[in-house]
Amino acid sequence: MTQPQSASVTSPILSLGALVRESESRLDAAGIDQPLLEAAWLVEHVLKLSPLMQRVNAERLISIAEWEQVRALVARRVAREPLQYLLGTQEFLGRDFDVTPSVLIPRPESALLVDEAVRRCAQTSGATIVDVGTGSGCLAVSLALAMPTARVLAIDASAEALVVARTNLAKHGLGARIACYHGDLLAPISKEGLTGQIQVVISNPPYIADEDVATLQPEVRDFEPRLALVGGHDGMKVHRRLLEQAPAYLKPGGVLLMEVGLGQAAAVCRQAEEQGQLHTYAVLQDGGGIDRVVCFEKKDVSLWPSSR
Ligand SMILES: C[S@@+](CC[C@H](N)C(=O)[O-])C[C@H]1O[C@@H](n2cnc3c(N)ncnc32)[C@H](O)[C@@H]1O
């Protein structure tokens, strides 16, 4: 569609209904799964009118400026930029989180990590919990709000991700309660005096194998941060390193909970057993029946019979 030559930037040129239909048809032609729904959400983002009110006001005229804003968003979606980055938000466990291309878009299956951490801390007031690779901060925020007495620490190797995490901590009133650290795995908290003090280390590490990156959906492959996605030749590089580091920080009976990719659970559990200080107490499946979260408990060596 071309812009009328004589129209000024503010003059109304198109009805709302026509804008939604045009957007839907461009998204549909690009192979987007739910083109009408996504068109309505993008229009809502610009015009602040719900999809229902868009239908009620279908005859309302919109300005060229509004039309151009929607058109620019639709073009980005046609190029497969994730809808969440365009809208700037994603829901996780019933709360809204800001998301930018610096952070992974929270996935519903990661709620398994939160549920298990809460279950393990049910009897412990003032538990210390560390979220390694916090990204948007969705896990740290959910944990802190579910456990008002817990001390929560959030770590990420990406300084840009931590900017987003801090925004989300503030958004949920937790800016003063969750401490953020920048750096590699547990190294940033090595001087916090937490050796043998932590009840839960929780992590959704990057777990895509190098060679599988090319097979990902373009929304993931081309837009989500590599550091959040890719975990070395077999996708388990970060899991292995965390299995080595976490036991020193966990209390006896403390737990390490890690999300894993399809087909990785057995290998990660084997590595934990070989390493000797942890034992696998559960492997949790997601809604699709995939082994998604591996759960390890630190053995209490004080209960072991002494060898004479
Ligand atoms: C899969 S994302 C998970 C983000 C968030 N926890 C979630 O569940 O949505 C992995 C996160 O780990 C971070 N990360 C990757 N390698 C890391 C490392 N060696 N140390 C600390 N953080 C790391 C990435 O920057 C990214 O934010």
CATH architecture of the largest domain: 3-Layer(aba) Sandwich
CATH superfamily of the largest domain: Vaccinia Virus protein VP39
- What is the CATH C level class of the largest domain, in words? Alpha Beta
Spatial strand arrangement across the major sheet: 7-6-5-8-9-11-10
On the 0-100 scale, what is the average pLDDT? 94
Residues in β-strands, percent: 15-25%
CATH fold-level topology of the largest domain: Rossmann fold
Describe the structure.
The protein has a seven-stranded mixed sheet, with helices on both faces. The chain has twelve helices and eleven strands. The model is unreliable at 1-9 (pLDDT under 50). The longest helix is centred in the first third of the chain and has 15 residues, at 64-78. The chain has helices at residues 16-29, 35-47, 51-56, 64-78, 83-87, 111-120, 138-146, 159-171, 218-221, 226-229, 237-249, 265-275; strands spanning 12-15, 61-63, 89-92, 95-98, 128-132, 151-156, 178-182, 198-203, 250-259, 278-285, 291-298. It is of the alpha/beta class and 308 residues long. The chain folds into two domains: 12-79, Ubiquitin-associated (UBA) domain (Helicase, Ruva Protein, domain 3), CATH 1.10.8.10; 101-303, Rossmann fold (3-Layer(aba) Sandwich). It binds S-adenosylmethionine.
